[in-house]
Amino acid sequence: MHIVKAKDYNDMSRKAANIISAQIIMKPDCVLGLATGSTPIGAYKQLVEWYRKGDLDFSRVSTVNLDEYRGLSRDDEQSYYYFMNENLFDHVNIDKSRTFLPDGMELDSEKACEDYNAIIQSMGGVDLQLLGLGHNGHIGFNEPGIAFEKQTHCVNLTERTIKANMRFFLSEKDVPRQAYTMGIKTIMSAHKILVVVSGEEKAQIVREAFFGPITPAVPASILQLHNDVVVVADEAALAECGDLLG
Ligand code: F6R
Asked: How many helices, marked H, and strands, marked E, lie in the chain?
C-alpha cells in the first residue's frame, strides 16, 4: 500500500486525477471503477478540465460504478447515475452506452446483482477502481461486518450511513434503506485501487483501516492485502497517522 500525502482537498483531487488520467493515457480502452460521494468530486472536476484542454480522451473508456440505491431511477436526482452524469459523464466524450451502474430499478435483488457481476466480467474486470472511505470504514456500501467473499449484493444501509447520506435528500425518511453494491471480492479483483480521503473527520478511520488489524469490522482494512493500492489523503485525514508514516 502506497500512501500519498496531499496538502488539502484540492491537492488530493489533483493528485488522484493524475493517477486516473495516467491510467487512461496508458490504456485508452481501460475499465474504470468509479465512486460517488463528496470526496471524488474534485478529482472529477479536474479530469473534466483536462478533457476540455484536450489532454484526455474518454472515447474508448468504459466505467462501472461501485453502487446504486435500490429503488431509484436513473433520472432521480439522488441516484448515483444522475450524480455521475452531473459530475463527469455529461462533460467528457465518454460513450454512455459503456457506463454502468447497478440497475436501481431492478427490484429483484438477485437478478440486479447477477446482471451487474456479468457486466463486470464481460468487460474483463476493472483496471483502476476509485474508492472513497466511509466514516465507519465502509467501501462501496459494504458496511462493517460484511463477509469479504461477497460479489455484488443488496445491502441494508446502517443508521450511520443513512444519516451521513441525509445531506443529499430532503429528509432522513427520503434516504433509501437499501442499495446494490459491488462486494469486497469484486473490489479486490481490480488490478489497481485508488482510495481518496479528505478531512479530519476521517482521520481516525484512516488509521484503523490502513494501519490496524484486517477485520470485517473495518471493511477497508482488507485493502492492506491488495498488491496495488494507492491512498491519496490530505493532511487532515492523515492527522492520526503521523507516527506511522515513513
Ligand atoms: C460511493 C461509495 C461510498 C463513499 C463513502 C465516502 O459510491 O461507495 O462508499 O465512497 O461513503 O463518502 P464521502 O466521499 O461522501 O465521504
From this structure: 7, 10
